[in-house]
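Subject: complex prediction, re-run

Hi both,

The earlier run crashed halfway through, so I resubmitted it with identical inputs.
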Amino acid sequence: MPLDKAGPYAAEDADVTLRLAQRLVPPLQEMDLLVLYRDLEMPLVEVLAELEYNGILVDPGELDRQRERLEGEIERLKARIDDELYGAIGRTIDHDSPKQLSGALFAKPDAAEPGLGITPIKRTKTGYSTDAEVLTKLADDASVESPVPALVLEYRQLAKLVGTYLGSLKDEINPATGRIHASFNQTVAATGRLSSSDPNLQNIPIRTEVGREIRKAFIAPPGRVLVSADYSQLELRLLAHLSRDPALIEAFRAGEDIHSAVAAQIRGIPLSEVTKEQRSGAKMVNFGIVYGITAFGLARRLGVSNSEADEIITGYKKRFSGITTFLEECVAHAREHGYVETMCKRRRPIPDIESNQPNRRALAERTAINSVVQGSAADLIKIAMVDLHRRLATARDDAYDPLGGVLMLLQIHDELVFEAPQAGAEKARDVIVERMEAAMDLDVPLVADSSISQDWFGGK
DNA sequence: CTCCTCACG
DNA sequence: ACGTACGTGAGGAGA
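This time it finished cleanly. Structure:
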């Protein structure tokens, strides 16, 4: 039986895509209508309609069990926060109100609404910030006696998991299919990335242990498995290709760990002598380069001074002079044309590149850099998606085709998740990886890592 | 509705 | 002199 949204909406989306594409309204552009690849033509919107139609199977019992466990923890944390605050300032607060927390932490003890009198660390538009960075600093600061910052950090983490995921996802399960059929939007992100909504399946937790557990609720039906494949260092490989920087290209060709290789280069030491800390610093630099690095931003993340961060950046730019030239070219292109372009000619207007306000112009310059790299990565995985979708359609009912019975379920920017018959999963995985790695012919190898598992947790 | 916060790549 | 690493979506408070 057809799903409410997948049937009629698919045709409507295609029509909207066509009309918008003809007017070339950013962020939707010509390449979104037809992704041209070798002899193949396919509107990406058909692939997305397929993803939305397929959906991913979710175990509501698993969500419930995890929710109940965390709700117990949450109640205990709330009670401890209440106790601590009542003892220290004689009042309690709404645990979900940043404004009230700000008062409780930063107001003077003798104020009408008394607070702990802690010295604020950073401001928001409307007051003092209580975000995770601030609370972590307060929790680590020996001169702050109160356990409240640490408790709120823990409370916020669990409340986020219950509120946004464990409590809400169950309501998104379609009763007819037992699956969540999220939307994958083609016309939202300015860089050309997809986005996901209702619910967003591109931000399911993975970075913390307790959060990652949630992925155990995303499962394959009996006799089937989830196959996940993700590009290794996609944006940095594209940076190497686009910039033609010899050192970065050579590091990728040699199959080196790229963060360690960059650490060795900036410090002029052998790869074997790179420490964990040096690698992690280089990783921050690599991220920073793709985002449009600033000394301030790097300093904040590395916990070093502005001038030390500046020296690191200078060293990087000297060792990787091809990258430096490329970054300058991105900015120059934006100045000359008012927009930048990805590998597949997707344009993003950069109007603020001419701004007289230094901070706006600086943001425009970082945007120019990031849009080329992030947008080209989006181009690349879209090509892989169209290619794979065609193969899946051809193979659909062919039991002898490795992709027979395989469904594409999710795209998470550099990762694709499929559902496949358990029996042929390894062969299906091999074809998927092979096609993803062949999406574009770059000056560096394109590598996709993969996993096969009963649920989305078991993977990476 | 805006703001803040926080989940992901 | 100025505020800062890019791109998203969602939930709760507060207005």
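Residues 98-99, 124-126, 129-132, 156-157, 160-161, 164-165, 193, 196, 200, 202-207, 211, 234-235, 374, 377, 412-415 of chain A lie near DNA strand B (CB under 10 Å from a C1').

- K.
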